């Protein structure tokens, strides 16, 4: 079975260099190692509406907007992946608006660590400022939803050359995967510890019954409560989501 890489590219520019560099890097990875299969979701080509802040996702476990736009396809592609790239240009020292809309729609997964059992990378393009902030932010986006971030590839138009960037990123990617063990790190274990104690935290915060009901019952499931670590949770999570192969990740 192939190792599936999914890239989410957050640019609205039809000639997006972020999209170009992401696609070319993934193509290069496929050439260097044929065990990989790649897919790119260029958000410009998808209908992704703004989050309206209704909080149904937190309380009931679904997003009412999913049935009106393409977000279900994106969630499904994420679930089917082994490795996830988030790619964004730097706009005003931050991620692009398109990427932020994606972030807001996926945010409820950060309270569930839904994508545990996947490895992550980020790709950032900029003229030459704000890239550090965006790198840290997208790394946090991945960690919060349960993805173990392994590396970030930053392209600055002022300093970098396209061919070298693609080659270096592809080689660094393969080295990162080869040297990685497991789905976990310290940050993910800490988040998981927090959510295992979620009941008590919600009680302390005087969260009303019914509010956050879905999250409450999610973390109360026996199979999750039995997990002694995020690593154990991540491996089980993949199986619960029906993803049979682990994509050749060293465990
Ligand atoms: C609205 C806007 C804001 C930008 N802000 C920054 C910035 O803060 N720092 C920077 O280095 N480059 C900035 N840039 C340049 C882009 O990050 C850069 O051109 C990027 O590679 C564009 O990627 P794209 O073609 O995929 O959209 C900005 C570009 C635009 C259009």
Describe this structure in words.
The protein is 45% helix and 15% strand. The chain is an alpha/beta fold and 251 residues long. The protein has a 5-stranded parallel beta sheet, with helices on both faces. Helix 1 (17-32) crosses helix 6 (162-179). The longest helix is centred in the last third of the chain and has 18 residues, at 162-179. The two termini are 17 Å apart. 37% of the residues are buried. The model has no long low-confidence stretch (mean pLDDT 94). Flavin mononucleotide binds next to helix 1 and strand 4.
Q: Uncertain spans, ≥5 residues at pLDDT below 50?
A: none
Note the total helix count: 11
Question: What is the element string, with H for helices and E for strands?
Answer: EHEHHEHEHEHHHHHH
Tell me the overall shape. globular
| Sheet with the most strands: spatial strand order | 2-1-3-4-5
Q: Average the pLDDT over all residues and give the rounded result.
A: 94
Task: Describe what is shown at a glance.
With 251 residues, this protein is α/β, with parallel strands linked by helices. It is 45% helix and 15% strand.
Secondary structure elements and pairings:
Elements: E1 3-9, H1 17-32, E2 36-42, H2 56-60, H3 71-80, E3 83-89, H4 97-106, E4 119-126, H5 131-144, E5 148-156, H6 162-179, H7 186-196, H8 198-204, H9 213-219, H10 222-225, H11 230-240
Parallel strand pairs: 1-2, 1-3, 3-4, 4-5
Helix pairs in contact: 1-6
The protein binds flavin mononucleotide.
Flavin mononucleotide binds next to helix 1 and strand 4.
List keywords for this structure.
251 residues, alpha/beta, 11 helices, globular, binds flavin mononucleotide
């Amino acid at each position: 079975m192939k190792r599936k890489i999914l890239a989410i590219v957050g640019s609205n520019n039809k000639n997006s260099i972020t999209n170009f560099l992401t696609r070319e890097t993934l193509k290069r990875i496929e050439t260097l190692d044929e065990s990989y299969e790649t897919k790119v979701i260029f958000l410009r080509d998808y209908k992704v509406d703004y989050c309206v802040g209704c909080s149904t996702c937190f309380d009931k476990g679904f997003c009412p907007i999913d049935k009106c736009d393409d977000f279900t396809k994106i969630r499904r592609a994420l679930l089917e992946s082994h490795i996830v790239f988030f790619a964004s240009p730097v706009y005003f020292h931050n991620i692009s608006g398109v990427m932020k809309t994606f972030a807001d729609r996926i945010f409820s997964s950060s309270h569930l660590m839904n994508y545990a059992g996947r490895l992550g990378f980020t790709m950032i393009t900029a003229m030459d400022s704000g890239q550090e902030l965006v790198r840290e932010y997208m790394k946090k986006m991945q960690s919060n939803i349960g993805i173990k971030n392994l590396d970030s590839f930053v392209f600055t138009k002022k300093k970098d050359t396209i061919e070298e960037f693609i080659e270096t990123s592809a080689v660094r990617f393969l080295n990162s995967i080869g040297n990685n063990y497991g789905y976990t790190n310290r940050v993910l274990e800490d988040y998981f510890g927090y959510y295992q104690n979620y009941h008590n935290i919600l009680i302390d915060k005087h969260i009303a019954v019914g509010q956050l009901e879905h999250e409450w019952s999610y973390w109360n499931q026996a199979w999750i409560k039995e997990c002694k670590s995020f690593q154990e949770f991540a491996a089980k999570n993949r199986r619960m989501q029906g993803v049979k192969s682990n994509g050749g990740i060293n465990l």
